From TrEMBL:
Protein name, UniProt field: Aldo/keto reductase
Any single Pfam family the record assigns to this protein: Aldo_ket_red
CDD domains xref list: AKR_unchar
Keyword match Transcription: no
PANTHER family assigned to the protein according to its UniProt record, in alphabetical order: D-THREO-ALDOSE 1-DEHYDROGENASE, NADP-DEPENDENT OXIDOREDUCTASE DOMAIN-CONTAINING PROTEIN
InterPro entries recorded: AKR2_Oxidoreductase, NAD(P)_OxRdtase_dom_sf, NADP_OxRdtase_dom
NADP-dependent oxidoreductase domain segment(s): 16-213
Species classification: Bacteria, Bacillati, Bacillota, Bacilli, Bacillales
Alphabetically ordered keywords of this record: Oxidoreductase
GO molecular function list: oxidoreductase activity
Length: 286
């Protein structure tokens, strides 16, 4: 697989990363199968693993920890805090370390900042950023990250306020049409040396009929890696095959693809950007 630099650092990752949200009972993936899938991913060269304490009440982290306990030095683990306070974030990190069976995580993210108010809370006195800076100073984390699905203006403001190492953002082809991180966020992030990690590639399954094109679209962007949620070995093998054969989309291919899927630019499909969804708690789990 093609490898790319992680922002301004000398670290490199394969273009295909592993989203561990789905290796849980909720997605009909057993613990035994989850461990098999994760080990197969590592054997095939995947080194970037993303999880969060809110994914199935910690089950994602727990299973990832069991799978990686003997291969910790082979991988990069990113997890998150959805708490906006210092103390709450520290409690989440301590629980994450316990479930992941490790004394450190490589990357810690502010989980899905939806509004400017979310950002203000994190940067306020006693906010989550204090926990992140303390954890980095203590060597518990290496990289400080931010994530978002909804409004690229929030993540743009975040990287102007602080030199985040990375940003995990929605970069499906369907996201191309409205509040586009690809258009509004990625160029500035690249300019500032912030590693961009793509997510929401399949638009919650809506892009499944265009599976290979969907992956190629996101891989063709200036991303450090792209995380794909995988709950079966079949999905992993399919994603690996596409990643290994990847060649960038031409401008003509991209335009033809976008014409085919423009009808998907609706609130029902792009739920993470729809105002009726933003006020709920659904995004904490996604």
């Amino acid at each position: 697989m093609e490898h790319r630099y992680f922002g301004a650092s000398d670290k490199q990752f394969p273009i295909l990363g592993f989203g561990a949200q789905r290796i849980v009972d909720e997605h009909q993936c057993t613990e035994e199968e989850a461990i098999r899938i994760v080990n197969r991913a590592i054997d095939e060269g995947i080194t970037y693993f993303d999880t969060a304490p809110s994914y199935s009440d910690g089950q994602s982290e727990e299973r990832l920890g069991k799978a990686l306990r003997h291969r910790r030095s082979d991988v990069w683990i990113a997890t998150k805090t959805h708490d906006r306070t210092r103390d709450g974030s520290w409690r989440l990190l301590e629980a994450s370390l316990n479930r992941l069976q490790t004394d450190r995580v490589d990357e810690w993210r502010l989980h899905n900042l939806v509004t400017m108010d979310d950002l203000e809370q994190c940067f306020a006195k006693g906010g989550a950023m204090e926990a992140m800076l303390e954890a980095k100073e203590q060597g518990i984390i290496k990289a400080i990250s931010v994530s978002g699905h909804t409004n690229p203006e929030v993540q743009l403001e975040a990287i102007e306020r602080f030199p985040f190492d990375s940003a995990l953002v929605a970069l499906s082809a369907a996201d191309h049409f409205i509040y586009s991180f690809a258009h509004e966020f990625v160029p500035r992030a690249v300019e500032k040396g912030v590693a961009v990690i793509g997510m929401k590639v399949m638009a919650l399954g809506k892009l499944a009929p265009w599976y290979e094109q969907a992956l190629r679209y996101t891989f063709s962007l200036p991303v450090a890696t792209t995380i794909i949620g995988m709950e079966t070995m079949e999905q992993l093998e399919k994603n690996l095959a596409i990643a290994k054969q990847f060649h960038p989309m031409s401008d003509t291919e991209q335009l033809d693809f976008l014409k085919e899927i423009i009808h998907l630019a609706t609130p029902d499909v792009l739920r993470w950007k729809a105002s009726e969804w933003m006020s709920g708690e659904w995004y904490r789990r996604d």
